[in-house]
Amino acid sequence: MPALGPEAVEHPELRGLTSAYFDRYSMEGRCKRCGGMGATVSPDPDSIVTRPDLPLLKGAGAWFDRAHSGEYLALPALAERYGAHLELPWSELPEAFRHAVLYGTGDEPVTFRITTRQKKSGSEATVERSVPLKGALAEITRLHETAGSESARQHYAAFMRRQTCEACGGTGYGDVARTLKVGGLTYPEVILKPVEELYAWAQTVEPTLTPMQREVAATFLPDLEKRLRLMTALGLGHLQPLRTAPSMSGGELQRARVTAQLNMDLTGIIFVLDEPSAGLHPADKHPLREILTGLRDAGNTVLLVEHDPELIAMADWVVDLGPGAGREGGTLVASGPPEQVQRVPDSVTGAYLAGRGPRVRRPRRRDAATASRLDLVGVDVHNVRLDRVGIPLNTLTCITGVSGSGKSSLLHDALGAGLAATLRGEQPTALTRIEGTQGLDWVTVVDQDPIGRTPRSCPATYTKAFDLIRKLFAATPRARDLGLGAGTFSFNSPGGRCETCTGYGKRQVDLHFMPDMWVECDVCEGRRFTPDVLTVDYHGRSIDEVLTMTVEEAAEFFTEPKALTTTLDAMRRAGLGYLQLGQSGTELSGGEAQRLKLANAILQGSGGRSRGMVLLDEPATGLHPSDVQRIVDALDVLLDSGNSVVIAEHDLHVAACADWIIDMGPGAGNRGGRIVAEGTPGRIAQGHGVTARCLRPLFQD
């Protein structure tokens, strides 16, 4: 947000102010104590002594060994002075000795001997020293401040703790930003407000300004109000302006990007939006529809790539591609107004627009009311404050709620990170504790992050199916005659790959002032391997031809080994039968990457050797309604093996199939973070919240 400049401040002492004073990353605007970070770091005794049940020099803390502590050699002499026996656990040593180890001996020297050995002669020399000890805390502080590299700083930071800066209260801003007020608020108070509250402030601040301040504010205040209005309308009103991207859900992040695109008073523009409804609760879609129609009415063209039947139905023109996915798609099935597409017999989308599409079904339900529970106690993260919440085990639990109600925070920060820490024997940070973990061996979060950032990554390598395929090729008579091992059939290592493109099948061309471009390798012609390797075939197919197979084709082609057929079957169950085994990971959508990770979770959870919990954030995102059924069926595979599945989902057709629903709300941001209702989908539909209202028609139908 723009800061009021020097003209807006009439006090003589503040005439020289610039916007830099409202930037915590500038020399002028940052807090002098914390440097704009909002926190200070200091040595933490609990991080230094992590195992008080062990002796000091035998595992009580990693700091107390030769590699870390410069005062290591003085510890026996210090122990003798205080009558401490170093063989005893740290917790049983005298308090005075423990204090001296951590905080030093002040001005009082400690006498100890140092014995060194000469490398060449092998002779030893003993030197007696008598110096005051600084203590572990002072030594760590000194080394952290003088570290010559970031890795060294991070190393010493492991023995320290971040604390909110007392000077700036955690804002990171200097004195000017924290004391100067506009409209009754300081700059940190303004930008730490949720967007919807900031919007209300921006609408009412003008009457509180002086004439000179109004003149300056007129240059940016209308634009600020428009941006805040758009963000509020797109379901982002609960976010603070400085909320970091990693802490936002995928839907929130995309809508934040959409806000930047829509904040242009232009006509004749083509807006291309990829699933703007992603991450939106059904109750939040009306403002989005108004914005899209407003753009159209202003003389713009709006092109949506969308799966939501509600948004498709409001379009003026629908272009339906298909009929299937991958090689089975890419043709025009129907084109025209929604009511015309509804009448096209071969259009799956048309069937859903007409209400004829098959509903997502899950005939076999599990009794969540009597199931064992995993209890999250004392949840405190972002806007979520819960004394206790129970997750039924070996069931499909769905977390619902409006956008910003705290679903992702509960799923990722409290449950995901908290359970992972608990299973490692560590203290979770987002909650007090987790009860009922008996019988759970692992937890995995199936997110939409890319599986790789270069063309080397592909479905076959990510699922380890390629390792098994390479072994099959290496076992053929032709490969044995040529002396080719399994490693030769890898495009990620030298030996059998084309060295011109190093196994990419493509070469990166530097276009200088334009983005780099990938072009097909003119030596291997995109086949990745040397001619010798390509002469080896398995049942008539070369390694390159296998990589161009779809998962569906590969599942029919390979009959052994069982590990390979099981992997391919898991990918099919996850709805990825159309993907090519060697398709570049950079070409996969977020939903495809998530379903590939789901396939790995199915492999991990269906072995029967251990039981775990699988967490998914909006697994229906990026899926046509006709594809959602496969995901629900895949989740049942995990449940049948004794695992537990928890999803956060806005698609209420999926929520209606769950065994248990935890509905968050009632609103977003500060108005959310609480459990509005929990129970079976049928019971939730009988309630009074927004989720109940949107869920009820599914049960009435």
TrEMBL record:
It is found in: Cytoplasm. It holds the Pfam family UvrA_DNA-bind. GO terms for molecular function: ATP binding; ATP hydrolysis activity; DNA binding; nuclease activity; zinc ion binding. Keywords: ATP-binding, Cytoplasm, DNA damage, DNA excision, DNA repair, DNA-binding, Excision nuclease, Metal-binding, Nucleotide-binding, Repeat, Zinc, Zinc-finger. Gene3D superfamilies: ABC transporter ATPase domain-like, ABC transporter ATPase like domain, P-loop containing nucleotide triphosphate hydrolases. Signal peptide: none annotated. Residues 44-157 form the UvrA DNA-binding domain. One of its GO terms (cellular component) is cytoplasm. PANTHER family: UVRA PROTEIN, UVRABC SYSTEM PROTEIN A. Belongs to the ABC transporter superfamily. UvrA family. This is UvrABC system protein A. It comes from Streptomyces sp. 275. The gene is sfrX.
